[in-house]
């Protein structure tokens, strides 16, 4: 389960030679859920046993709760999340005109909290932010991932693709070395999945809690500010058509 | 963020090598001369191969090593490698597999060239992954694997 830690040396992260990666062939895209043991699959599939559902339920409560100087709840503006938030997570991340950068779902939620509710932003990886994000993303469960086509995202996504394919760190491995070229094989005791961000925020057994895709990437390898979001855009593009699973469970 | 990455790095392996890389001569697909003097210690080599923090070998390779269920399947099984390859051939493969297979995922364990642009973290910079002594011991062990 800790197989990745040793290879985190790759994480000193940056760009050098670009390796041409064969990539995953059309029709061969598979979610991480397909590479898990039947026990872990069962844990994800059953809402009564999926520990991520606790965060979704907490998010449902927070959705209804008035907050901030505006004293208004998410529901005050967005009403019934099952209607208004359906499909949102399936097309995130989006381009944020205010900062002229990509913004992920958690970032978007926090900007509503700061600007619309006029409340203190929630800390990254805090239970409350993970809960709201899981609740919003859960409204897209079962829908195919269809990344935003906004042209302003293209340079960031291209940067993410370059990072994904660059050999970095002392061990000179790229994300693509494992996730494009060698998925399905085993690194130590762990099967290498294709690295599709289908189920975030998700419950990771190794963490014993729910975490974001950003946490997963940081953990995996990346130590360079801002770049994980670019990587996220590329990952989402690679996962086009796969179904949203939030809250997923992973080993 | 940098902190977390660094934590990963420290867990990654003790930066034990910490030495300069010496020069060596490649003959065909082998390094005939040992990198350092002295006699290799096969028992220490065996322990090093199974060390998932430092050598990482078994994350990719299987072979006649402990904890078979934790062996990777990214690389050839090393059973019988001592019958397939000479000590000098093994040495070059561990030192710098990229000379033989430019696109290989196997790390070059005794090479620090071309570091610029790869942003190797400070603790690792200018250090080979394994020392000459480590490679001597690993070679001494792998040559005993005759089948
Ligand atoms: C005072 C009104 C208001 C409140 C309160 C509010 N929002 Fe929003 N929210 C908006 C508006 C306006 C938009 C922009 C809609 C658009 O761009 O089409 C938006 C956009 C969003 C989006 C992006 C939707 C998309 O299609 O890209 C999400 C997700 C979201 N809000 C979640 C939340 C959450 C979670 C909360 C509570 C923590 C919240 N909002 C509170 C007004 C509000
Ligand atoms: C040497 C192999 C290797 C490299 C290099 C690697 N990964 Fe991974 N990755 C794995 C393995 C193995 C897992 C599954 C770990 C587990 O189940 O504990 C994984 C899991 C993931 C996941 C979780 C997928 C899911 O289903 O939720 C993502 C996302 C990911 N990697 C992205 C990346 C990115 C981005 C990079 C490069 C910065 C990278 N990986 C580099 C081996 C690798
Ligand atoms: C990240 C993966 C990885 C790691 C870690 C790794 N190797 Fe390898 N190794 C490979 C691959 C892949 C090959 C096959 C060469 C190729 O086609 O790229 C290989 C080939 C070899 C060979 C030649 C085998 C033969 O039968 O021809 C030897 C010997 C070897 N490795 C020893 C080691 C030792 C010793 C270590 C640790 C000190 C190690 N490897 C670590 C991936 C790895």
From TrEMBL, chain A:
Keywords: Electron transport, Heme, Iron, Metal-binding, Periplasm, Signal, Transferase, Transport. Heme c 2 binds at residues 175, 178-179, 220. The keyword 4Fe-4S does not apply. GO terms for cellular component: cytochrome complex; periplasmic space. Pfam families: SoxA-TsdA_cyt-c. Its cofactor is heme. Its EC number is 2.8.5.2. The active site is at 220 (cysteine persulfide intermediate). Transmembrane segments: none annotated. Residues 58-145 form the Cytochrome c domain. GO terms for molecular function: electron transfer activity; heme binding; metal ion binding; oxidoreductase activity, acting on a sulfur group of donors, cytochrome as acceptor; transferase activity. Residues 1-21 form the signal peptide. InterPro entries: Cyt_c-like_dom, Cyt_c-like_dom_sf, SoxA. Heterodimer of SoxA and SoxX. Belongs to the SoxA family. This is L-cysteine S-thiosulfotransferase subunit SoxA. It comes from Mesorhizobium wenxiniae.
Automatic annotation (TrEMBL), chain B:
Keywords: Heme, Iron, Metal-binding. Residues 40-146 form the Cytochrome c domain. PROSITE patterns: CYTC. GO terms for molecular function: electron transfer activity; heme binding; metal ion binding. It comes from the Bacteria. This is Sulfur oxidation c-type cytochrome SoxX. It comes from Mesorhizobium wenxiniae. The lineage of its organism: Bacteria, Pseudomonadati, Pseudomonadota, Alphaproteobacteria, Hyphomicrobiales.
């Amino acid at each position: 389960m800790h197989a990745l830690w040793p290879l985190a040396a790759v994480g000193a992260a940056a760009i050098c030679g670009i390796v041409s990666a064969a990539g995953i062939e059309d029709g061969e895209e598979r979610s991480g859920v397909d590479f898990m043991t039947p026990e872990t699959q069962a844990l994800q599939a059953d809402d009564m046993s999926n520990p991520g559902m606790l965060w979704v339920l907490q998010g449902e409560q927070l959705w209804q709760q008035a907050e901030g100087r505006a004293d208004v709840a998410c529901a005050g503006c967005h009403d019934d999340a099952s209607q208004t938030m359906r499909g949102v997570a399936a097309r995130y991340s989006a381009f944020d005109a205010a900062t002229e950068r990509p913004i992920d779902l958690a970032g978007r939620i926090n900007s509503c909290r700061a600007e619309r509710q006029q409340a203190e932003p929630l800390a990254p990886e805090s239970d409350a932010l993970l809960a709201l994000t899981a609740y919003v993303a859960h409204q897209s469960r079962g829908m195919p991932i269809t990344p935003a086509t906004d042209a302003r995202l293209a340079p960031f996504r291209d940067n993410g693709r370059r990072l994904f394919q660059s050999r970095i760190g002392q061990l000179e491995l790229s994300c693509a070395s494992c996730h494009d070229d060698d998925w399905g094989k085993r690194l130590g005791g762990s099967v290498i999945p294709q690295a599709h961000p289908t189920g975030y925020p998700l419950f990771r057994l190794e963490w014993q809690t729910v975490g974001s895709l950003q946490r997963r990437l940081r953990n995996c390898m990346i130590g360079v500010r801002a770049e994980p979001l670019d990587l996220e855009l590329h990952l989402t593009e690679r996962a086009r058509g796969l179904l949203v699973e939030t809250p997923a469970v992973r080993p | 963020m940098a902190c977390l990455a660094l934590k990963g790095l420290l867990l990654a392996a003790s930066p034990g090598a910490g030495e300069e890389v010496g020069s060596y001569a490649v003959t065909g697909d082998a390094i005939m001369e040992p990198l350092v003097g002295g006699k290799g210690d096969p028992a220490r080599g065996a322990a090093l191969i199974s060390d998932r923090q430092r050598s990482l070998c078994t994350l990719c390779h299987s072979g006649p090593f402990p904890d078979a269920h934790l062996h990777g399947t990214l690389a050839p099984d090393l059973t019988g490698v001592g019958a397939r390859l000479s000590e000098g051939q093994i040495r070059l493969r561990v030192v710098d597999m990229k000379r033989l297979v430019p696109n290989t995922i196997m790390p070059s364990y005794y090479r620090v060239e071309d570091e610029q642009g790869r942003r190797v973290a400070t603790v690792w910079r200018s250090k080979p992954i394994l020392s000459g002594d480590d490679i001597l011991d690993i070679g001494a062990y792998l040559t005993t694997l005759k089948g």
